[in-house]
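Hi team,

Filling in the usual template for the complex we talked about on Friday. All components are listed, including any nucleic acid strands or ligand strings, so the model treats them as one assembly.

SUBMITTER: L.P.
PURPOSE: interface mapping
COMPONENTS: two
RESIDUES: 569
SEQUENCES:
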Amino acid sequence: MKTVTDIQNAAKPAFDARVARRDFPILHQQVHGRQLVYLDNAATTQKPRAVIDAMNLFYERDNSNIHRGLHELSMRATAAYELTRERVRRFVNAAEDREIIFVRGTTEAINLVANSYGRRHVQAGDNVVITHMEHHSNIVPWQLLCEEKGAELRVAPITDDGELMMDRFEAMLGPRTKLVSVVHLSNALGTINPVKRIVELAHRRGIPVMFDGAQAAAHIRLDMRELDCDFYAISAHKFYGPTGTGVLYGKAELLEEMPPYQGGGDMISHVTFEKTAYNKLPHKFEAGTPNIAGVIGMGAAIEYLEGLGLEAAAAYEQNLLEYATHAVSTIPGLRIVGRAREKATVLSFVMDGIHPHDVGTILDQEGIAVRAGHHCTQPLMDRFGVPATARVSVALYNTREEIDSLVAGIHKVIEVMG
Amino acid sequence: MTSELTSLYQEVILDHNKRPRNFHKLESANHHADGYNPLCGDKVTVYLDVQGDIVRDISFEGSGCAISKASASMMTEGLKGRTLAQVEELFQRFHDLVTGRPENPANPADLGKLVVFSGVREFPVRVKCATLAWHTLRAAKENRQQPASTE
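RESULT (copied from the run log):
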């Protein structure tokens, strides 16, 4: 087993978190008289100056509604909004801009697919396959759909280490399976699922696949054309962009034949009281005035992340996660929940006789922000027989010094709780 | 350690967390209810043995943080032998204590040992931990079928 010193001596990846930190104004503050240590990045990441400025600039200079105005400001706003679509397309390597649907976030993207694709294709006696490590947002929309249709929701089991049991997963795919929807990177365990293999197994049987990429987008290079999945959902606020903005990627041929999700302005081409003709992709799925400033902020976040180098940042985070994993492993009575071979960013743990909430409150008094709770994955908590965990999640601006503060903080927790 | 932290995790609270009193199912119970905090997943069941208008016995089961467990434990200790009217009055006083309502300053003398929870008012996100058992107690008195919720 590698020691902390071994990891310290390992070659450092070409990325400097100390420099990147300067780009995030919020990190430079004190909380309860201590320097803030923000380790709740799986809940939401902080925003670099470039994102904040892009959104402010939009409101100060270009604010207007899109896709309809004939005036200068509206044209600027439309251009900036559509430029982001192209930027997102490149970010996820989709084939066409019209495959990029702007939504509020991952939750809305999944609901869109469940309501539009799901309601059209899932009938009584059919089934939808998910896994035991899904966030509630990738459980409940399918539950609602299955209840409405009289379909079955199948849940693929996971191992004690938090890995998907691939043989059991494959065995669940049947002639009546109409969709598979799986998390790419688990928010509660950090597990990275074998997405390529999942697509292969499902496609071999003609079953389309959706991935919940909420956590993955900041840490894993996405490539829709290589992955060949049918739907993929991301949220801007998990990769240094604003809240309330996200993307549903969908293959054009599937999106084309899907009915609209919401009705309203922008999604139509012609309306009479007798009949409405819908707009073409992607506008068919973008009813109403969207979060224009948010979309522009998302574009700035992608530009920022690509400027730093997503792969370099991810390699640095991986190194930091290993450092943290080794460091907390030395703490008596602490047990890590989620030990998948392939994992990223997340370190979930429980402590003997000390509830995660008390861990969270005491760490907060030390200026350290972690998440304590069920992480919107109650079935997963039940699976591991814990009511909740404390969760540390690292981002590109976190440092080893911050992990050292965390370890000292956990020792303080033990001291306080006796 | 911050003074807020010391006043939140007082010795008495830590002791009740480690050795909760009346922490079992009550066979003689004629009232019980489940309580649940959907935000954090804390669960508690409160059992009551009420004869006439007197709480003859009370116990609880469940899982939760130090604050919620100690609160439930000390609640059961403080309510044995009380009348239902007294229980309701204590509920109000305790609630005012942990929410720190200025218009209703709690009188330490009325609350007895429960004053150790006064530190909770400095931690608004932990108020629900302290009150879960009490909300569940109220539901048990009324024999409500739906679980009590902090929401």
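MY TAKE: Chain B has a mean pLDDT of 89. Residues 3-145 of chain B form a domain with the Sufe protein. Chain: A fold (CATH 3.90.1010.10).

Thanks, L.
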